[in-house]
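Re-running the complex after MR caught last week's input typo. The corrected sequence lines follow. Everything else is unchanged.
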Amino acid sequence: MAEVRIEHVFKRFGAVTAVDDFNLVVKDGEFVSILGPSGCGKTTTLRMIAGFERATEGTISIGEHVVSSSEAGTFVPPEDRDIGMVFQSYAVWPHMTVAENVGYPLKIKKVPKEERERRVQAMLDLVHLGEYGKRYPNQLSGGQQQRVSLARALVAEPGLLLLDEPLSNLDAKLRESMRFEILEIQKKTGITVVYVTHDQSEAMAMSDRVVVMSMGVVQQIGAPHEIYTSPANKMVADFIGLINFLDGEVKGDRIFLVGNDSHSWANKNGLEGEVTVAVRPESITMSADGGEFRGVVTHRFYLGDSVDFRVDVNGHIVRVIKKGSDIEAFPDGSTVYLDFDQVMFFKRN
Amino acid sequence: MRSRINSKTIVISVSVLLLLYFVVFPMIILLYDSIMLDGHVNFQNYANVYSQDVNWKALTNTVQLSLVVMIVSVIITFPLAWLVGRTDLPGKKGFRTLLVSSYMIPPYVGAIAWVQLLNPSVGYINSILRWLFGLETAPFDIYTFWGLAWVLTLFYSPFAFITISRAMEKMDPTLEEAARVAGASPLRTVLDVTLPLMAPSILAGGLLVFIAAGSCFGIPSIVGMPGNVEVMTTRIVTYIYMGDDAGVRDSTALAASLMFIANALLFGMTWMMGRKDYTTISGKSTRPNIVELGKWKIPAVLGVSLYGAIAVVIPLGSIVMTSFIKSMSKDIGFDNFSFEPWIPVVTSAQYMESVWNSVVYGVVAATIGTALALFVAYLAVKTNIKGRSLPDLLTVIGGSTPSIVIALALIITFSGNFGLNLYSTMWIIIVSYLVKYLTMSVRTIAAALSQVHISLEEAAQNAGANWLRVCKDIIIPLIAPSVVAGWFLIFMPSFYELTMSLLLYGSDSKTIGVLLYELQTYADTQNASVLSVIILAIVLIGNLILNKVSKGNVGI
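Corrected-run output:
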């Protein structure tokens, strides 16, 4: 198993900087997700680790080996990096059977036939495809093909597993169960995983740590709960979960909502002038009899397990999510009181 | 609602009937004539022709030549397509254009060029080599089996190049990347993944070359016949030129054999391509994995350049140069170049009439053809009428039938025996162009139509437009670039067509291809070169327009 070190890595395509000073150490056996919107540089980063892109600057090491270093001019091709990789498009070879697909890395390594067959079968059993060895990929469903791809990536027992949006071609239910399967397999094998996704719930649910990227720059690295409860900046707060951004201002040493004096917060971070007050819809308590802010319900959306409200507080439209399915407790036009919990403040730009 | 169904049904049935009458009917008559005599089944003509050594030899020559051309084309083309498509070869775009450009040169112009370069008496390359090495005799003779194979390969390998490089572009690059992370070297990846996945396309490209080489008349007639290297097409023409009923009947036997071989191969190919399902789910479009050539960069550039020079630059250069030589008997030098040779050609009323004829026939064929292609494509792509792809299939059959077979079938059918007599008129030539080239236009327009979502039409119908109105206001404006492209895809090959024109022209309907062929046969190299340059110029302009309207997606 291997530790991955990425130090001061840049990737430039002409004038465009796709990855800007990326630094990360993935510990041995750790599951790290790189999360960000499309075009943020997450896939480019993964492809540099795999060796499909050459870093313009910086050093990448896998285990003991420096696999890419711009200063030393080192560049180890993908086939010599001892990694397994799962692609979004599965990349299962259509001209080979399932067993041939999974056995290919062992065939390249010249593993004897009997041992190869035994290991392929063990791997297929692990991904619940024990009976499918003789089939061709076009006889399998998308989820099954993705399991073939996973088995092929793991069969040679590489030190590092890279996954590039492996679940985004699957339907919602299958995605949930595959999350669980991937985690189970990671636990069993103890392999180091770098997982690229644009789906924040996937990243949150699966990872030990999450790297949030935007426009080529790492915004924050942390455990899922850290990223959720104390986002480093507005971008991270916005990207992870739902959040209200309300216009606020600093008056003296307190922060107020613009045009509202009913409640204020201590300015702990020493912000100045215009600020953004951020609060998650589920961190707001709504009641009919008194609280920090007074507002009027303008819209309600029934979501089954909860109700999604829009409340007008002096012109600030606040989204409030209230658990339970009692939609009639606060009808449209009724006056309500809101209490904000876990409020965050950012500089407004 | 009623009027919409009616206008649609009428327009579509008329196109189907036209296609049946002009494509299917003549071929049935040809087949019928080849096996029936005075109302009885009679294979005497087959026995006649194949008992003669010259015809049997023509058949074996055709098969051997086509095989050689096919194999060599694929062997040359695969690395070229890979270098241009998947590596960091400098100047890839220019090389790609260069490599497909011999596709737009009329084959017989290429043949004329290679005769100028490699004929044993005064070929430019032969003369240079003799002077360089003080040789007694010319080192190369173009008028041989291998000379013919050489020219056919250079002119038909773009068929393979286009098919193979398209397949390479379409292949999901992560399939190769998966092999790399599995531990395979770049070469091993090509052998284990790229080649097997592309095998059907490679075979398809090869078969296209095989069929094209076997059906070609222009190149064998100019390069093969002087050295008595006969192939099926040249034999068919010889029989037709005999002019009597027996000659025509013998030619039908040869033509039917050729048609059978070509169509059998095509259907075999389609069946094979459809059999293996290699479609895979493709995710986001990753940039194709570009292989870095490193130290092989310079050799690769040199290799591709050399091929480009041999296939395109040298033959075209030879033709252009010859067209400006004042006196063919003098040495080549700057004082021997001028516009003088051009004057008699461009001022000759007889020559210019042929140029004009070709332009007119091309325009008429392209215009009728585009209208037909629109209906055929619409029917195949946009409706769910039973048998909707039948007309499309008919145009494909027309396009895959060797030109010489089409010409013969039209002669037999439209000489008045079955009502319509078009013989020696411009219309029989135009019909032949339509039969042969309609399919290219249909393909282009169908591809564009399939991009127009049905909801756009339905929205117009909701707004109250009938079907013809929907076509005029919604569909045609949206697919306009492809319609223009489809027009040129009929116009250009029609403009420089040789084989069918040669068999179908009358005293008033001589085309530029026929004129050029005559000049070459009378050994008037000079005028032939001038006319070739005129053809090339017009084809080049047509291609530039085509490239512009289709944004580089379609070209000949």
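None of the earlier attempt is carried over here. The CA atoms of residues 250 and 273 of chain A lie 5 Å apart. The helical segments of chain A are 42-50, 98-108, 113-126, 142-154, 172-189, 200-206, 224-229, 234-239.
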